Amino acid sequence: MDFKEIQELIKLINKTDLTEFKMEDGDFKISIRTHKVGKLVSQPTFQPQPQVVPIQQPAVQPPAAAPQDVPPAAPKPVTTGNQTGSKPATEEDENYIPIKSPIVGTFYRSSAPDKPPYIKVGDTIGVGDVVCIVEAMKLFNEIESEVSGKVVKVIAEDASPVEYDQVLFLIDPKG
Asked: Which tens digits make up the pLDDT trace of 1-58?
């Protein structure tokens, strides 16, 4: 069997559902294996799901230990994210609606370093307005507002990492 015949044989096998082909002709032996079945098994993976579970567990644990003095301090970091101190936990800020990051990634206020930010404090936004970009795995995801109102506070710092469900902005729905 010459090289051209082997190439034609490989093309024919690729057109079929065969996963393995063996042939013997005297001293000549050939074995061809395909990975058609293996591709279907290895594809379904989705990384953000495991990241959601650790965030939800701390939110469930503090209420179980509520009678003690320690748990009131534990919920504050969970609700405010990693970027800010105690300000979002004030009574005034509780009247505002947070815009949270739907994914883990890097937060950007504008589409490019030389461009103005999508929104600033004092701007009025509507439902569906792009408020920022979160880069995840080399993809730039435009984050749209699900509420309308006046931008009261920008919580996350530009070009900083953000977690799933971390507060990025505070919006006054009455504004």
From this structure: 777 777 777 777 777 777 777 888 888 788 777 765 444 444 444 444 444 444 444 4
Q: Are 166 and 81 a contacting pair, CB within 8 Å?
A: yes
46 in the Ramachandran plot: left (φ > 0), alpha (ψ -120 to 50) or beta?
beta
What residues does each domain of the chain span? 3-42, 51-172
Query: Which structure tokens are listed for 82?
Result: 């990693």
Q: What's the CA gap between 36 and 18, in Å, rounded?
A: 8
CA distance 42 to 53: 23
Contacts 24+ apart (CB under 8 A), 2-6: 6/30
Asked if pLDDT for residue 71 goes beyond 80, the answer is no
pTM over 0.85: no
The phi, psi pair for 29, rounded to 5°, reads: -130, 140
Third-level CATH fold of 51-172:
OB fold (Dihydrolipoamide Acetyltransferase, E2P) (2.40.50)
